[in-house]
Write a structure and sequence with these properties.
Blueprint (H helix, E strand, L loop, with lengths): L16 H6 L7 H12 L2 H20 L3 H12 L2 H14 L16 H10 L9 E7 L6 E6 L2 H19 L15 H12 L20 H8 L3 H11 L3 E3 L2 E3 L12 H9 L2 H9 L9 H10 L1 H10 L1
Parallel strand pairs: 1-3
Antiparallel strand pairs: 1-2, 3-4
Length: about 300
């Protein structure tokens, strides 16, 4: 990590998570100004490069099924100061929901508090419940629940996501487009266009009802198959409970929409669906009109099936 005046950056210590993210300053002292300057002087491009190099090695290890190396690199990344800085920056500056408070009531952090938070991030931390917020569904007279974690949990989730995502990007099916880095709805539309422009195709247009809310925790953790400390941390997030109108409810299934790591966990839970639908296509009734041709085309054009999933 290159940072102008790196030797002068002092990592403030606090003796509790609450002090780390809940510190309220009445006025700016000279130390606060120094922290602001130090935060502004961090060379973020260098940090991004350092983290990306480790992520690239995790991806390659996962691609060749080298689990031992992948786990070692994931532990290295999670303990990396560069990765912790980026995780805190993303949840306090970059994310659209950065001004939404969890049960801790914290909406924003000063530079000093950000440094404190960086210094406190580690696996095995006690998890607080998410705060339920209801938002309207676009074009419908319905609302959907969001589960907002505390600032600390959001930062730790961002850090864990950095370590898990490259491992799973090496495994995910090629025709999956939702919640994946470097992919968008436009990529899915492009895949559909390329698939249907030559001749007519059959398309499966399906929706998974309440996908985030119905994920089975046991099966997800089995599929995640990570090292024990990280597994316990993910399980703690899944089982953290939700606070709705000052009432605490247990979470026996699902992963909260609003969690930084939730989209990745949902993709992990759905991983393998493409292969299952491919098997299902082979069971189509061959006696139906064009049934044989339908089965053949379905097997040849899986990309269309899964491109549609991300748009609907």
């Amino acid at each position: 990590m290159k940072c102008k005046g790196t030797s002068r950056i002092k990592m403030p210590q606090t003796d509790s998570q609450e002090k780390t993210v809940g510190l309220i300053l009445g006025h700016e002292s000279s130390d606060d100004i120094n922290d602001q300057l130090n935060w502004a002087l961090i060379e973020w491009d260098d940090l991004e490069k350092r983290v990306y190099k480790i992520q690239k090695r995790i991806y390659k290890a996962s691609s060749r099924d080298d689990v031992r190396t992948a786990r070692r690199l994931q532990k290295l990344l999670i303990s990396s100061w560069s990765a912790k800085c980026l995780a805190v920056r993303r949840v306090t500056q970059d994310n659209q929901g950065k001004k939404t408070a969890g049960v801790d009531g914290v909406k924003s952090l000063t530079p000093k508090q950000r440094f404190n938070l960086i210094n406190k991030l580690k696996l095995g931390s006690k998890v607080k419940p998410t705060r339920r917020v209801w938002i309207p569904k676009p074009g419908k007279d319905e609302e959907r629940p969001l589960g907002i974690p505390t600032m600390y949990d959001r930062a730790l989730q961002a850090l864990v996501k950095m370590a898990l995502e490259p491992e799973w990007e090496a495994k995910f099916e090629p025709n999956s487009y939702g919640f994946r880095p470097g992919r968008s709805c436009h990529d899915a539309i492009g895949a559909i266009f390329l698939g249907i422009r030559s001749k007519s195709k059959y398309v499966l247009d399906a929706d998974i009802s309440k996908c985030f809310d119905e994920i089975n925790h046991v099966r997800l953790l089995e599929k995640l198959n990570t090292y024990p400390t990280l597994r316990r941390q993910v399980r703690a997030w899944l089982k953290s409970g939700v606070l709705d109108d000052k009432k605490l409810f247990p979470t026996e299934k699902g992963t909260p929409q609003g969690g930084v790591i939730s989209p990745l966990l949902a993709n992990i839970a759905l991983h393998g669906m493409e292969e299952e639908i491919k098997k299902l296509s082979e069971t189509f009734d061959m006696k139906e009109k064009r049934g044989r041709q339908m089965a053949k085309e379905t097997k040849e054009n899986q990309s269309i099936l899964f491109a549609m999933r991300t748009i609907s």
